[in-house]
């Protein structure tokens, strides 16, 4: 039965591809990356990722949002190098209380590790964790109803993670206004249109109260729809409540252009969302995406391909991690110490 569903899904997805895959983005490919990078070393790569995520998302569609956000955080901090996945990384799994405080979903890290294990079983240690993260984000968009797009591959994994300061300086807080967002994005060579299109990633997923109660207390943001504000006050009776709400109130788990319709109705959740419809530089872009989903999808794809190539390690730089949560150096250091101790007979107790 489950297998039957899966087969059905695959059929549906392949139909999607025929209809939507209208060729490649015109965004330039970074030196060292290519659209065919694993076509001989791991020909089934994309279907391994897709089939696993079909199973994951069939059980819990909301995991798509966690995977999309993971790729964004990876790329904005120190480049798309899987640094975000390392245990001990400021926004990674072992430092949930480090800033940015409301971090990534634990489940997203496990999903990436599970996919890497499946890939290694079929192809060996050839695919980087940074590429797995990029592919998981791409599949999450597709399987949530968004567009299919090819992505350049060949990223390599960083041997180190970013410091707290670097992480804080590169990730925009939800309180940013459009000027601050434009500045941060332009420091990464992303345009104002890229900013608006990529913010459309908030068409899926959730936010915690602490990410938006600045708009409720002590004074209510006059730029927020009154009904939404009243509902949010019930969800978040105090600024520190550990509750969550959907980012896109119209279609919370579907990747579509309704986020922009929300903004036009003053129903954006964060300051960083709603201000895109206030600022004259971005307002008309929001409007065109709200009325033309095809246009949004095209710009989102271009933005994702640019973002997905930020600061990539290629060629012989970095490494291909065996375990996405740990650098190979650490893993090897662990094993060599372990072997040494074994040889010396000091680790006899199991
Ligand atoms: C423009 C600047 C951005 C800001 C200020 C921002 C801020 C945030 C914040 C505060 C949250 C909620 C965290 C929480 O309370 O749990 C969030 C969630 C999310 N963000 Fe962004 N973000 C931005 C851009 C992006 C981009 C470029 C993407 C991807 C293309 C993205 C994808 C997501 C997704 C999918 C979620 C939901 C995550 C989940 O449900 O686990 N965001 N973002
Ligand atoms: C399915 O999703 C639920 C949450 O919705 C989670 O608790 C459970 O662990 C998931 N099961 C699998 C097999 O991933
Ligand atoms: C996040 O953590 C930092 C440092 O621990 C703290 O200063 C800040 O107030 C926290 N922010 C939120 C929203 O909890
Ligand atoms: C990190 O940033 C804080 C505040 O801006 C600064 O005081 C501190 O020296 C920085 N630390 C490092 C290691 O750069
Ligand atoms: C955006 O925020 C910055 C920093 O708080 C502030 O200086 C600036 O005036 C704001 N810009 C607008 C247009 O509100
Ligand atoms: C932005 O583009 C310039 C010029 O091509 C390049 O030198 C710089 O490294 C790029 N910045 C980022 C963050 O990719
Ligand atoms: C969380 O939000 C729901 C409504 O979305 C509300 O019924 C509940 O009381 C809230 N929980 C807390 C602890 O505030
Ligand atoms: C929220 O703040 C109140 C008052 O400052 C405090 O009593 C309560 O324990 C806090 N709750 C959480 C979940 O941090
Ligand atoms: C929507 O955008 C697409 C892609 O740019 C364009 O081809 C199409 O003409 C637009 N549709 C309308 C109704 O403007
Ligand atoms: C991967 O690395 C993490 C962090 O060092 C470790 O906790 C975990 O057990 C490792 N997983 C495997 C399968 O070795």
From TrEMBL:
Where heme b is bound, by residue?
A: 202
**Swiss-Prot/TrEMBL keywords:** Calcium, Disulfide bond, Glycoprotein, Heme, Hydrogen peroxide, Iron, Metal-binding, Oxidoreductase, Peroxidase, Secreted, Signal
What EC number(s) are associated with this protein in UniProt?
1.11.1.7
Query: At which residues is there a site annotated Transition state stabilizer?
Result: 69
Checking InterPro entries in the record gives: Haem_peroxidase (IPR002016), Haem_peroxidase_sf (IPR010255), Peroxidase_pln (IPR000823), Peroxidases_AS (IPR019794), Peroxidases_heam-ligand_BS (IPR019793), Secretory_peroxidase (IPR033905)
Per the record, what are the reactions this protein catalyses? 2 a phenolic donor + H2O2 = 2 a phenolic radical donor + 2 H2O
Q: Which free-text remark accompanies the cofactor? A: Binds 1 heme b (iron(II)-protoporphyrin IX) group per subunit. Binds 2 calcium ions per subunit.
- Which residues carry out catalysis? 73 (proton acceptor)
User: The organism sits in which domain of life?
Assistant: Eukaryota
Where is substrate annotated to bind? Answer: 172
Where does it live in the cell?
Answer: Secreted
Signal sequence span per UniProt?
1-23
- Family annotation (Gene3D superfamilies): 1.10.520.10, Peroxidase, domain 2
Q: Which GO terms describe its molecular function?
A: heme binding; lactoperoxidase activity; metal ion binding; peroxidase activity
Annotated positions binding Ca(2+) 1: 74, 77, 79, 81, 83, 95
Pfam short name (any one)? peroxidase
Its chief place of residence is secreted
Q: Name one GO cellular component term.
A: plant-type cell wall
Cofactor dependence is on:
heme b; Ca(2+)
Q: Where does Ca(2+) 2 bind?
A: 203, 248, 251, 256
What protein does this entry describe?
Peroxidase
């Amino acid at each position: 039965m489950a297998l039957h569903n899966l087969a059905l899904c695959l059929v549906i997805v392949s139909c999607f591809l025929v209809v939507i895959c209208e060729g490649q983005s015109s965004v330039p490919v970074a030196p060292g990356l290519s659209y065919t990078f694993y076509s001989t070393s791991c020909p089934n790569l994309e279907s391994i990722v897709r089939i696993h995520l079909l199973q994951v998302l069939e059980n819990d569609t909301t995991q798509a949002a966690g995977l999309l956000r993971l790729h964004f955080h990876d790329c904005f901090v120190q480049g798309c190098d899987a640094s975000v996945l390392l245990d001990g990384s400021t926004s990674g799994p072992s430092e949930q209380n480090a800033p940015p405080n409301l971090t990534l979903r634990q489940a997203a890290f496990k999903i990436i590790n599970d996919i890497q294990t499946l890939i290694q079983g079929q192809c060996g240690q050839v695919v980087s964790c940074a590429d797995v993260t990029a592919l998981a984000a791409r599949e999450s968009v597709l399987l949530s109803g968004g567009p299919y797009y090819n992505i350049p591959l060949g990223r390599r994994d960083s041997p180190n993670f970013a410091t707290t300061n670097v992480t804080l300086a590169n990730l925009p807080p939800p309180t940013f206004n459009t000027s601050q967002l434009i500045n941060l994005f332009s420091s990464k060579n992303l345009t104002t249109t890229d900013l608006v299109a990529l913010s459309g990633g908030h068409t899926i997923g959730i936010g915690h109260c602490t990410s938006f109660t600045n708009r409720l207390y002590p004074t209510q943001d006059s730029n927020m729809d009154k009904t939404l504000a009243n509902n949010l006050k019930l969800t978040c009776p105090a600024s520190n409540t550990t509750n969550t709400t959907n980012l896109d109130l119209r279609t919370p788990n579907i990747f579509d252009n309704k986020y922009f319709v929300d903004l036009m109705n003053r129903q954006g959740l964060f300051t960083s969302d709603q201000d895109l419809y206030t600022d004259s530089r971005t307002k008309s872009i929001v409007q065109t995406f709200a009325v033309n989903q095809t246009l949004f999808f095209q710009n989102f794809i271009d933005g994702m391909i640019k973002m997905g190539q930020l600061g990539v390690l290629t060629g012989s730089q970095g490494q291909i991690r065996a375990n996405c949560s740990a650098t190979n150096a650490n893993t090897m250091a662990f094993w060599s110490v372990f072997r040494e101790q074994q040889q010396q007979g000091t680790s006899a107790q199991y």
